[in-house]
Design goal:
The complex is a heterodimer of chains A (359) and B (127). Chain A contains 13 helices and 8 strands. With 359 residues, chain A is of the alpha+beta class. Chain A has one domain: Cytochrome-c3 Hydrogenase, chain B. In chain A, the strands form 3 sheets. Chain A has a 3-stranded antiparallel sheet. In chain A, strands 6-7-8 form a 3-stranded antiparallel sheet. A two-stranded antiparallel ribbon of chain A has the order 4-5. In chain A, helix 2 packs antiparallel against helix 3. The longest helix of chain A has 29 residues. The radius of gyration of chain A is 20 Å and the shape is globular. Chain B has 127 residues and is of the alpha/beta class. Chain B has a single domain, classed as NADH:ubiquinone oxidoreductase Nqo5 subunit (Beta Polymerase, domain 2, 2-Layer Sandwich). In chain B, the strands form 2 sheets. A 4-stranded mixed sheet of chain B has the order 1-4-3-2. A two-stranded parallel ribbon of chain B has the order 5-6. In chain B, strand 5, helix 2 and strand 6 form a beta-alpha-beta unit. Chain B is globular. Chain B starts with 6 loop residues before the first strand and ends in a 32-residue tail after the last strand. The chains are: A alpha+beta (359), B alpha/beta (127). At the A-B interface, strand 6, strand 7, strand 8 and helix 11 of A face strand 2, strand 3 and helix 2 of B.
Amino acid sequence: MPKRIVVPFGPQHPVLPEPIHLDLVLEDEKVVDVIPSIGYIHRGLEQLVQKREYPEYVYVAERICGICSFMHALCYCQGIEHIMEIEVPDRARYLRTIWSELSRLHSHLLWLGLFADSMGFENLFMRAWQLRESVLDISEDTSGGRIIQSTCKVGGVRRDIEQGKLEEIHRVMDTFEEKCRGLGNVFLNDETVKYRLQGLGVISKDEAYTLGSAGPTLRGSGVAIDHRETGYAAYGDLGFKPVVETAGDCYARCAVRVRELYSSIDLIRRAIEEMPEGGIDVKVKGAPNGEYFSRVEQPRGEVVHYLLGDGTKHLVRARIRTPTLANVPALVKMLPGAQLADVPVVVLSIDPCISCTER
Amino acid sequence: MTTVKEEQTTTSVALGDLIREVEGIHADGYRLVQIGCTNIGEAYEINYSFDKGYRFRNLRLTVEPEIEVPSITGIYWGAFVYENELHDLFGIPVTGINIDFKGTFFKTAEKFPLSITRKGGDRCQNV
């Protein structure tokens, strides 16, 4: 039996500038076991809910993550609105959907770039991030912020998008989609990419399901679960089908994200076409008294905000379960069998966001 | 008008029945979504959340401080991330975790920051 050695991966690693640590147990170059560690930058944002009034906490919620900022705010606001039985205007629901899908686009493009970088495909990395810039431009144009849009609030949204701007975004989506398909074609059909990813970091459908995985990690293993199917925001009006792949390897998880780019573009177009007229918010009175598990599909998977209010301006508890935390057990299961050189690729294939995880 | 197709239910469970109930939920084909804890003054409220086809089901366990809670990692292997969190943030002793970090999963400046009785405590009680 080969001698076993332990090689530390992280908490600072060139391909993943976020602090997760893995103790990799190796036999020669092959990973046989993994022990994960997180918690280096735990920020205590959940506890802040007791010190900020519930409408103010939206600003904290949108800073839980630097990538899916809008969706954290949305999940929080939807939870409060459910407890307080607030009906959000239709136009606000559609605007929320557009900003959500813009967040998904820029998150997936960010990930595709980092993923290409982890494989040593630098040119592809630059192309992905170049495309991401055009999404950030739309975000800045419509909200004033490239990453933190800060447009969601309890009772609706803070800003409208005027008709001319919506038409412009609709037009931009045509050329943007063409470029995305060109980029996606490389990820899905390039022989070197396929050779590097296929059969690597496999997790079966049953394992992905029982381990409680979320998002593309779950759907890449053939499980058709995407919380947008429940119809929150405007997804119920627009109709939605999850993107699913079945191989359960790094290639499948990558393919899910590539195809979700096209799905997000389609959702943005349809939301613009069917955008209702009317107000963008309602006046909110009182304070939440009750509890709710609010769930939203972020780029990395389902996020859960458990909110408990006692009728005062300060919530008793906000507990946030982020998708990366749910995907850590799957990561521990998918690494054994991989070569040491493939570890960065497998780790990145779950799209880890430690910022979210260390809420 | 928003129509969210999701059903949420919460049922209380006694400490002695927890494992049996979770086994039943597992056998029914539910996946584990999360385990979360709330400090309710004199006790902790632990929510075990499961989902199947967007039916969101919670088991609610209420325990007093220092009471040992059995791990469900024998049923849901991935529960170790949540159970280590219960221990590291709330100081709840969870017994039989498959990967037990013994208080080092969350490296907080203060030990057990959300604990009722062990806030700032120095050592983990898991053995």
